[in-house]
UniProtKB/TrEMBL annotation:
<keyword id="KW-0472">Membrane</keyword>
<feature type="transmembrane region" description="Helical">
    <location>
        <begin position="152"/>
        <end position="172"/>
    </location>
</feature>
<feature type="transmembrane region" description="Helical">
    <location>
        <begin position="192"/>
        <end position="217"/>
    </location>
</feature>
<dbReference type="GO" id="GO:0048473">
    <property type="term" value="P:D-methionine transmembrane transport"/>
</dbReference>
<feature type="domain" description="ABC transmembrane type-1">
    <location>
        <begin position="19"/>
        <end position="210"/>
    </location>
</feature>
<keyword id="KW-1003">Cell membrane</keyword>
<protein>
    <submittedName>
        <fullName>D-methionine transport system permease protein MetI</fullName>
    </submittedName>
</protein>
<feature type="transmembrane region" description="Helical">
    <location>
        <begin position="23"/>
        <end position="46"/>
    </location>
</feature>
<comment type="similarity">
    <text>Belongs to the binding-protein-dependent transport system permease family. CysTW subfamily.</text>
</comment>
<dbReference type="GO" id="GO:0005886">
    <property type="term" value="C:plasma membrane"/>
</dbReference>
<dbReference type="InterPro" id="IPR000515">
    <property type="entry name" value="MetI-like"/>
</dbReference>
<keyword id="KW-0813">Transport</keyword>
<dbReference type="InterPro" id="IPR051322">
    <property type="entry name" value="AA_ABC_Transporter_Permease"/>
</dbReference>
<feature type="transmembrane region" description="Helical">
    <location>
        <begin position="58"/>
        <end position="82"/>
    </location>
</feature>
<dbReference type="InterPro" id="IPR035906">
    <property type="entry name" value="MetI-like_sf"/>
</dbReference>
<dbReference type="Pfam" id="PF00528">
    <property type="entry name" value="BPD_transp_1"/>
</dbReference>
<feature type="transmembrane region" description="Helical">
    <location>
        <begin position="88"/>
        <end position="111"/>
    </location>
</feature>
Amino acid sequence: MHDLISWVSQNSDLILTATWETIYMVLASGIIGFAVGIPLGVVLHTTKKGGLLENNQVNLALGAIVNIGRSVPFLVLMVAIIPVTKLLVGTFIGTTATIVPLTIGAIPFVARLIEGALMEVPSGLIEAAQSMGASQLQIIYKVLLPEAMPSIVNTITVTLVTLVSYSAMAGTVGGGGLGDVAIRYGYYRYDIVIMAVTVIMLIVLVQVIQSLGDAIVRRVDHR
C-alpha cells in the first residue's frame, strides 16, 4: 500500500499533465478539422453526379486530394510536413506542433465520413424541398444537414476517437501527451506500471468520448 501511495505521489502530476495535453491536442485539431472537413464533405456530396451542385471537375479534384490525404500513414504525414509545422508554430516538437499534422490528418477523414453521412438522406426529401421552391443552400442547411445529424455526430465521435490514437502515436516522435509518457517513462525505462496507467487513461478518454457521442446521437435522432 505504501509503495502504491509513493508511486501515485511521484507520478500523478506527470500523468495528469499528459492527459490534459492529449485532450488539448485532440480538441484543438478536432475543432479545426471539423470546421474544414464538414464543408468539404458537403461539397464532395453536392458536386457528385446527380448532386445539387453537380460539377464533375470539382468533385474529381477534391476527391483526389482527399484520397491522397487519407492514404498517407499518420507518422509519415508528421515527418513529411515538418517544414509546414515549423512555419506555422515555430517548432515541430510538442503538443501545439502536433496539432498541425493531427488537423491535416483529420480533414480528409472527416470529409469522406460526412459525404457518406449525407448519402443516407433519402432523395425523396430533397425532391420534396425542390418542388416547394427551396434554394440549393436552403436544401443543404435545412434538409441535408439536419436529416444527417445523427450520422454527423457519429462522424465527430469516430474522428475524436481516431485522433486520440493518432495523438498517442505522435508521442513516439516527441509529440507530447500520454503517448510521449508511455514511450519516455514507460518503454525506455521499462516501467510497466506507467505503461499500464497510460493505456488505461487512453481507454478512459475513448470511453468518455464514445459515451458522450452516443448520448448526443440519441437526442438528435428523431427517426
